[in-house]
Amino acid sequence: MLYALNDAGYQAFIVGGGVRDILIGLKPKDFDIATDATPEQIRAIFRNSRIIGRRFRIVHVHFGREIIEVSTFRAITGENVEIVESRLSRHDAHLDSVHSASGMILRDNVYGTIEEDVLRRDFTANALYYTVRNFAVHDYVNGMADVDLRILRMIGDPEQRYREDPVRVLRAIRLAAKLNFAIEPATAAPLRPCAQLLTSIPSARLFDEFMKLFFSGYGEKTFLLLQHYGVFGILFPGTAIAMLDDDGHYQHMLHSAFRNTDARIDADKSVTPAFLLAIILWPALQKKQKALEKGGMPPAMALNDAAQAVLGQQLERISIPRRFSLPMREIWDMQLRISQRRGKKAELLLGHKRFRAGYDFLLLREAAGEQLDGLGQWWTEYQAANPELQTQMQTSLEAGSAPHAKPRRRRAKSRHPHNTAPASGS
Ligand code: ATP
Ligand code: MG
Predict the structure, then answer these.
(1) Are the beta carbons of 48 and 61 closer than 8 angstroms?
(2) Is the separation of the CB atoms in 197 and 162 below 8 Å?
(3) Whose Cα sits closest to atom 15 in ligand 1?
(4) Nearest protein CA to atom 16 of ligand 1, as residue
(5) Which of 370, 166, 350, 158 lies closest to 283 in space, CA to CA?
(6) Over the stretch 20-50, which tens digit does the pLDDT of each residue have?
(7) Which ligand is nearest to the CA of 122?
(8) pLDDT for 103 beyond 50
(9) What gap in Å lies between CA 372 and CA 338, rounded to an integer?
């Protein structure tokens, strides 16, 4: 890639997470390339490529199943010329020209030089440019030193950069968790006050970020940091409110869920947002459901109405695609059904497509300290039992409920003479 661009006479660098991850000994998730070639020029070099994006066009080059993102150096628009001046004293000569050329020309021309591209990036560790021309890393913002110190430092004025793009609040937290970097104090200070700005981000973009936060293998640590900086409550307001009067068991439940997810990702097992979302939103659901039941609503209806309300509220922040929200609600429904084991219900439930997820969810609830009369244990044994033993378990369940059943039977019998009495009397 780099060679092909170089051969065609362009500059080309690997930049961002790829360089950073290699430097700290992680396996890069992907490689991003920055170049002074325009999207059209890039396309002309790589046949298997496509230009995507409207605001700032980048090129996706396909290599079999892999996609490499190639972006043209971005120019600095009027708003961040100041950052240029304060940050790049070493490049004064060049910046003068940027500054004098700022205004109309720069704003019209979205493409810039590598020095300008540097300043559009978020953290110093993400602004290292690797070239195969002399196999060197170009470092304009002391990113190398910060990588060595394991520090995440915002380029420019942190608060201003969060305001420009509030998603950087999430990126700071996610990368600190992923890289095990400390967030430099001036970079960390505006996190809490700027978290609120995330409410202006389209909910679809926040879903993408949600996926990166919790499905990259370090969700538990991310969750801790999100809570620490007051960001979790912005992403999941209903849950945060319900957890205000938590006795610790929701906290425990969410922790184990994130830990399990991390472990499954580590073991290359499948993970689904439906299950994790069912857990994250569970505290909000329970709060609402209990309130409705207190008002006299039957459990099944309360669950349904609460699910509707909680999901509706959550969608205002994070758009959850239906293919995840439907199974999420089925997992919730399963919590009610799994407690009803009479007659043939248990046997039928075993064959339900959401039984397994519902059962796993139940175990998490119990592990977190919810008192459910050994329901999880019962299902564990029931699933392992042969048909004979299953019938036996069923019977002992009915026997256990005999004290309830008896009076009903007696009443039924005594009603008989009553009912027939008027008939015989007439
Ligand atoms: P990951 O390990 O998740 O891939 P990354 O840092 O590579 O982390 P990407 O989303 O792949 O993240 O972005 C690639 C690079 O683009 C970043 O390293 C950074 O330089 C730049 N970048 C991405 N998002 C932003 C943003 N919101 N603001 C400024 N620069 C950004
Ligand atoms: Mg990346």
Answers:
(1) yes
(2) yes
(3) 16
(4) 16
(5) 370
(6) 999 999 999 889 999 999 999 999 999 999 9
(7) 1
(8) no
(9) 11
Q: How far is the CA of 239 from the centre of ligand 2 (A)?
A: 30
Q: How far apart are CA 322 and CA 277, in angstroms?
A: 12
Three-state secondary-structure class, residue 139: strand
Burial of 185 (C-beta count, 10 Å sphere; 0-12/13-18/19+): exposed
pLDDT 10s digits, 304-348: 999 999 999 999 999 999 999 999 999 999 999 888 877 777 777
Catalytic status, residue 36: no
> Which protein residues have a CB closer than 5 Å to ligand 2 (ion)?
17, 30
| pLDDT tens string 346-404 | 777 888 888 899 999 999 999 888 888 888 888 888 888 888 888 888 878 776 654 44
Cα–Cα dist 378/128, whole Å: 56
| Domain spanning 202-398: CATH superfamily | cca-adding enzyme, domain 2 (1.10.3090.10)
pLDDT for position 398: 73
Upper half-sphere CA count for residue 49 (Cβ side, 13 Å)? 20
The two structure tokens encoding residue 150: 């394991």
Q: 197 pLDDT exceeds 60?
A: yes
Work out the average pLDDT over 221-247.
96
Q: Give the strand pairing for 182-183 and 151-152.
A: parallel
Using the structure block, give the residue that is written with the tokens 């019962």.
378
Does residue 122 have an active-site annotation? yes
208 carries an active-site annotation: no
* Cβ-contact 132, 2 below 8 angstroms: yes
pTM reported for the whole predicted model: 0.85
By the 10 Å C-beta count (0-12 exposed, 13-18 middle, 19+ buried), 154 is classed as: buried
Identify the helix (H) or strand (E) that includes residue 21: helix 17-23
**Alpha-carbon distances of 12 from 28, 30, 34, 232, 372, rounded to whole Å:** 18, 16, 6, 38, 60
Question: How far, in Å, from the CA of 65 to the mean position of ligand 2?
Answer: 16
DSSP assignment letter at 132: T
CB atoms within 10 A of CB 214: 25
Burial of 16 (0-12, 13-18, 19+ CB in 10 A): buried
What was the pLDDT predicted at 157? 97
d(CA 151, CA 144): 10
CATH superfamily for domain 1-190: Beta Polymerase, domain 2 (3.30.460.10)
Number of helices (H), then strands (E), belonging to the chain: the values are 26, 9
Q: CB of 167 closer than 6 A to ligand 1?
A: yes
What is the total residue count of the chain?
426
pLDDT of residue 401: 54
Spell out the domain ranges in the chain.
Answer: 1-190, 202-398
